[in-house]
Amino acid sequence: xxxxxxxxxxxxxxxxxxxxxxxxxxxxxxxxxxxxxxxxxxxxxxxxxxxxxxxxxxxxxxxxxxxxxxxxxxxxxxxxxxxxxxxxxxxxxxxxxxxxxxxxxxxxxxxxxxxxxxxxxxxxxxxxxxxxxxxxxxxxxxxxxxxxxxxxxxxxxxxxxxxxxxxxxxxxxxxxxxxxxxxxx
Length: 185
Known about the structure:
alpha+beta
């Protein structure tokens, strides 16, 4: 606080220290009308607070824009890592297709395709993707989509999954594709 404001406060305190003690009949007369200095100091204070408010608002707006821009960038590049990890699998498929044209050994082709499948599944697992287990499980609408119902072969299989026509997947505890199943009735 500068000296001008300190002096104004001290003058105000000196003028109003005795209010209510001595001159109780002069309640209205003791109230000082704001002087030009008081109005100027109030205007200065208003301008200072208004300036701080405007700067704070602008700073928050800049923060909001910056975080929105960072979020957009993150979304754009998030898939980049998955694509980078998928490219070696694509390379292996291309090699397999090239070898299929010249090789007559079916077991070697089958083994190669199984290795590529395992590589793909481990890459998906690395990125938080898991297959939904359906074999012998109870039907659960959170994870499964019933495409049809069939009579259950045994009493124990009622309400359980008899067959899975399309695997479902979970990404970080969120279902991204429901398993399409046949349910015993």
